[in-house]
Amino acid sequence: MSIQQDNIFQAIIAHAKEYGFVFPSSEIYDGLSAVYDYGPYGSELKKNIRDYWWKSMTQMHENIVGIDAAIFMHPTTWKASGHVDNFSDPMIDNKDSKKRYRVDHLIEAFADELQTKGEADKADSLLALMDKFLAAEDFVGLKKMIDENKITCSISGTCNWTDIRQFNLMFKTEFGAVASDNPDDNIVYLRPETAQGIFVNFLNVQKTARMKIPFGIAQTGKAFRNEIVARQFIFRMREFEQMEMQFFVRPGTEGEWYKFWKEERLKWHLSLGINENKYRYHNHVKLAHYAKEACDIEFEFPIGFKEVEGIHSRSDFDLTQHQLYSKKKQQYFDADVNPETGKPYGNYVPYVIETSIGLDRMFLLILSNAYEEETIHKEDGTTDSRTVLHLPSKLAPIKLAVLPLTKKDGLPEIARTLMNECKNSFKCFYEEKDAIGKRYRRMDAIGTPFCVTIDHQTKEDNTVTIRYRDSMKQERIPLDKIKALVLNEIM
Ligand code: ATP
Fold this sequence. Notes:
Blueprint: H1 3-18, E1 22-24, E2 36-38, H2 40-59, E3 64-66, H3 76-80, H4 83-86, E4 88-93, E5 100-102, H5 103-116, H6 120-135, H7 139-148, E6 165-168, E7 171-174, E8 187-190, H8 195-199, H9 202-208, E9 215-224, E10 239-249, H10 254-270, E11 279-283, E12 293-301, E13 304-313, H11 317-326, E14 332-338, E15 343-348, E16 351-358, H12 359-370, E17 371-377, E18 383-389, E19 400-404, H13 411-422, E20 428-430, H14 436-446, E21 450-454, H15 456-461, E22 463-468, E23 474-478, H16 482-490
Parallel strand pairs: 3-9, 19-20, 19-21
Antiparallel strand pairs: 1-2, 4-5, 4-6, 7-8, 9-10, 10-16, 11-12, 12-13, 13-16, 14-15, 17-18, 21-22, 22-23
The chain binds adenosine-5'-triphosphate.
Adenosine-5'-triphosphate is lined by residues 193, 225, 227, 236-237, 240, 242, 307-310, 356-358, 360-361.
């Protein structure tokens, strides 16, 4: 990350705190690493992103239904899913600084340095070799790479490394009050992904909602991972929220559905009006053994292009594993006729395409894309500045600010009437304090797309001044047109 990029990232973090979007968790006790709380405007923005995703999945697709599964699950779930044995990252410790690194992050940071030094080819071949070693779980090869390239710790500056070890990312806790001879009996995990809550409910949902393949199950909810490297604000957290959808398809059709969801999900991102150039796909080279295809949708964050969402073609791996461990059939009867045989497709374990996006990461995407420190060139030749969040109107925490010019002369009463008319339909904000320019700036800083000023002329002709956040243009329109104008922009 360049100094300039780092400055922007730090400015966004500071802005998020100052304006009530994101606070460090339990800050009065100096915070808890990689855990964050959302403030008054942050919780609204987060909810709006979640609702926008939920609506696009469960309302706009007739064949997708939602569930809300518990965070705690039977511990065997995580045996079956492979998380107990495999949900780990290779890590390495620097013996001098005692700092722990994820091996892939350490090597990627070194490759970034090579890039900035103009040694792009060397960086590329290093990353390709790393992918090969990671896929083969060849830790000796990886360690040799680190040694041979003299990769150093950013704190101690030394190459004094431990061997590479696996580190499981799941949090464990104890369940119930009954003591057992075997302490493992009481262990439950905090779910590291929401997906398994969908898989174990596959038949419950299919039967009760009478779903026919192809169909999807969507869910949003908290997930927990004991991340090794956790210092990128809400990009990588230990407690975070996911929005996941598992789409169940007939075996043999997974290729076309993977392609469909890969395109559909990018369209969803672009529907928020974000510049297409800030997105790219990253197709996975290293695939899980059961996976058929996988890619990430990456976004250009201030910290560089990074994953925001994963699309994975998971074959019948998860349902087959749960069938094996639970000894309960996880099959679907497909009555449609196979044109090749003239008979119904019959019973099978469906294949799955997964779309998985982090809500907090999407929040960071929206926030960093919206943030601007703008210089305003005024007509008299002078300049001014403002910090503005160009949030998509439908996601903005507050849609409309209602601002009486003064606290008297009946203006607050007119403003209150407008508030009462609108507040049932969208979130409004009322303020009488300070000069109007100052009030506009505060609304710019939290991304409110529309401000309405009620002044003395309003009393005469029932018109108000509407001020648009992005252009800062102002125009006079009838008071009774405001609600429809805002609704039109946020639907
Ligand atoms: P990464 O490579 O960044 O660790 P991942 O490939 O492990 O991510 P998935 O398991 O595919 O991520 O999870 C799906 C999505 O959940 C990610 O695309 C990301 O948006 C989000 N996510 C995963 N881990 C975290 C985390 N620690 N903090 C915030 N969001 C996360």
